[in-house]
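Write out the 3D structure for:
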Amino acid sequence: MIRKGAEADIYLGEWFGRKAIIKIRKSKRYRQPDLDAGLRKKRTLHEASFLVDARNSGVPTPLVYFIDLDEAEIVMQCIIGKRLKEIITNCRGKYNDILYLNVGRSIAKLHKENIIHGDLTTSNFIVMKNKILVLIDFGLSFSSQRLEDKAVDLHLMKEALTSAHSKVADEVFNKMLEGYSEVVGTKIVKDLLKKVREIGRRGRYTRVE
């Protein structure tokens, strides 16, 4: 096992001689057994579908090799690389500027197809040795045309940058927006930013209350 999550455990394994990631959704004792089995099946299929949909939208994601709905298990490509989180901490410069632009372009491609990732953080982007950027973990993804949902996605990324990379957060977020804008246009970005600021204000008021 390489990671134990609240909902699923992640294992490193093999699939026909290739390294693979195996994600297994755990059974919850507090749930009624039939309901538990149904939920685990539904969420497994849901995540696998979004991995494929995101890839079809032009965003690199791990290939899905196999799904076992009865065991709530997804076998997928093992992505070898560094998490974006580690790269932001360690270096800056032209290479990273291109990387941040690509992060923005990837998010915009998802949003253009009305795919909301639901958990955008710098830990969920992996940079491969060949510099391809891969987005992982679609367990919280959903479909939505709403500007608000897309803005929440961007707000999550902004919060992740601020909490983990405060010194460069604004600079990196602006570069991401530049990449995002290349895909959807400046008008949409302007509307989204207005929403992102509104969500930020709501969050602050909620925390104060």
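The helical segments are 33-56, 84-90, 94-112, 147-164, 169-184, 186-208.
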